[in-house]
Design a protein that fits this description.
Blueprint lengths: L2 E7 L2 E7 L5 E5 L4 H12 L3 E6 L10 H5 L3 E4 L5 H11 L3 E4 L6 H6 L1 H21 L4 E7 L25 H20 L3 E6 L1 E3 L11 H11 L4 E3 L5 E2 L1 E3 H12 L5 E5 L5 E2 H13 L15 E3 L14 H7 L7 H15 L3
Parallel strand pairs: 3-4, 3-6, 4-5, 6-7, 7-8, 8-13, 9-12, 10-15
Antiparallel strand pairs: 1-2, 11-14
Helix pairs in contact: 1-8, 3-5, 5-6, 7-9, 7-11, 9-11
Length: 347
Amino acid sequence: MVGQMCGKTSGYSLIFFTRLTVMRTLVTGGAGFIGSHLADALLARGDEVTLVDNFSSGRRENIESAVTNGAEVIEGDIVDKVFVEETLQAVRPQTLFHLAAQGEVRRSIEEPSFDATVNVVGTVNVIEASKNIGLDRFVFASTGGAIYGEGSRIDLPAVESAPLAPLCPYGQSKLVGEQYLELYRRMYMFNSVALRFANVYGPRQNPKGEAGAVAIFGELLLAGENPVVFGDGTQTRDFIYIDDLIDAILTASRNDVEGPVNLGTGDETSLLELLDSLRDAGNSLNGSGPPDSASFEPSFASARTGEVKRIAISPARAAEELGWNPTTPLGKGLGHTLEALRARTPG
């Protein structure tokens, strides 16, 4: 690396480095919400990008811009050990971003074996194949929302050294993934970082899935429908906008920091507060909010097993080790998300 220039491209604050050779990067789960944004940012910084996805939840429409800009797409499943080994041997990336996962809390409770197969066996497949090709840097997408367990039992916002007590198989399987990375560091000096994501939101998030309260509630708001809240609505989450998260992932990929790093805002926002903020963002969206017939007032259903009551994660280590802090206020991020949801709505 022989030079440095700061710039802004495609909505992401990037640091561009002049390289003697093009960086080869691979993203598992590359057609997903986060993976597709990451692909665009990697291409913007000049990487040679390969996306791996089985398209069980990832969408081809998410990666249209990435494909247009030169990304290679390989369809396959991380649970298939032979596929993973052959793909990494063929591509031989220098940096790998492992985002592919079973990411739904409820499904992890209903199908714990499936969750473990994808998030543990699949992750081990990717780690082992990466070690075998001499990968330079492994970036693992972990969870800050589920790995700590119930936030009311610890000081919030949670720091990385807080005791971990997941309440669902999803959080447990991500913890096991982190532990395998620690093992491979001890055994093989394997270079990796585990990024614990807060609740990520923004354009391209699927409003039809279980995860992603902002997308789910935002689509209801634009349709003039009222939301259903599971629990009493006072449960809190830490919401981080996709552009901020991508900046952090890119920075972590160029840094030698190891172990877990929280990527969140450190702020607790209740679901009731989120609904109020969404309503405000809708009202200011080109001066028009939801239809007059919609009050956007929630109805309530029983709380779901495995979901924590309170959580927020501290970005202090990311600030110290990566020089990163989130910069997008919740209201601004919600406005961008509603604009994107409206643009996708037919008619």
